[in-house]
Amino acid sequence: MRMHATDRRQQLIETALDVFSRKGFDGATTREIAAEAGVTEAIIFRHFANKQALCAAVVQAKRDLAATDRSMASVKSFTERNDDAGLFREIARVILACYREDPRHERVMLYAALEGQSEALIEHREFSEPIMQVLTDYVARRQKEGVLKPGPPVAIIVAIAGMAAHFAMMTGLFGFESRVKDDEMVDAFVNILMDGVRSKKSATGESK
Questions:
Q1: pTM to 2 decimals?
Q2: How many angstroms separate the CA atoms of 119 and 72, rounded?
């Protein structure tokens, strides 16, 4: 049965994502991708000009614009209410969800960084930087209002995102087991960010 061109293109992207996530961009060949998709290399080049174009399509295809719009709407609801903890919790939750739902894309982006795939990295930054700007602008405003401690706003965003991403990589990519549920870890990360890890009793004792 002949597959529609749109469906075939999507199949090739999904197959390429799977292969790239296992072997990287440099380590995978279009011949391997074609074999796993059950087609000839000629079919791949009918849909993509070259391997680099296929790589770019793989990176772009995982950008779920509808999901991003929903997430940004959620972010906006937290910022409009000045709900700092809620915003930080949403950031951590979304990052964990990305790893849990399909870790292949996260693996592909790691390969892109390690192999110096500049086009993929540029696309990733163009997608991510506007979101980071919204988040850091919010933190800067809350710092100006005296609610959050002074310091580089990006450090606060990187702190919560970094905790979530590292935990996701440890458990999702490196095979470490966790006896703590994701939502409990997210709450712990937010508490650490908001309050630190030193107990009030310890801080009082040291100050004396």
A1: 0.85
A2: 25
Q: At 208, is the pLDDT very low, low, confident or very high (cuts 50, 70, 90)?
A: very low
Please give the backbone phi and psi of residue 93, each rounded to the nearest 5 degrees, phi first.
-65, -45
Higher pLDDT, 204 or 122: 122
pLDDT at 65: 67
- Say how far residue 174 (Cα) sits from the centre of its chain: 16
The secondary structure element, H or E, covering residue 191 is helix 182-195
Rounded Cα distance between 168 and 33, Å, is 28
∠ CA 162-171-155, nearest 5°, is 5
- Under 8 Å between Cβ of 114 and 182: no
- Distance, in Å, from the CA atom of 43 to the CA atom of 172, rounded to the nearest integer, reads 33
In this structure, what token pair is assigned to residue 48? 């993509």
- Which amino acid, 66? A
